[in-house]
Amino acid sequence: MKIIAWNCRGLGNGAAVRGLLNIQKKEEDPDILFLSETKMDERRINGLRWKLGLANMVVKDCSTNHGGGLALFWQRGVNLQVHGISRLYIDAEVIEEDGFVWRITGFYGKLCWPVLAGAGNLGMVHDALLAETWAFHS
Prior knowledge:
Blueprint: E1 3-7, H1 14-26, E2 32-36, H2 42-52, E3 56-60, E4 70-74, E5 79-85, E6 89-95, E7 101-107, H3 113-117, H4 122-130, E8 134-137
Parallel strand pairs: 1-2, 7-8
Antiparallel strand pairs: 2-4, 3-4, 5-6, 6-7
């Protein structure tokens, strides 16, 4: 399975979108793509989803024009279930064809215990620490 995680620092200009499309091509179509600091709303990211050729997505809009915004995309054949989403993270579980289960969490900002242990995050951290495999990006 191929995964790309990228802090794109804004996708509001053509150069950033072209850069993302080039990364995607060079990596030979990732199965999962996590973007942080998109600085875009869901409507605009949905248009990007079609350019990338990825069937599924979940988005956390940026709260201001100055930063934030998360997006997780995945291919049609990937069995991915989103378990949590906030302005700081998207947390999901992936079930492989052979039944192997692993967790993926994409974070925005500095990854530290106060962020992980913040209100509403303890359940995610507990479940993730019990999981045999956990991939995360910050």
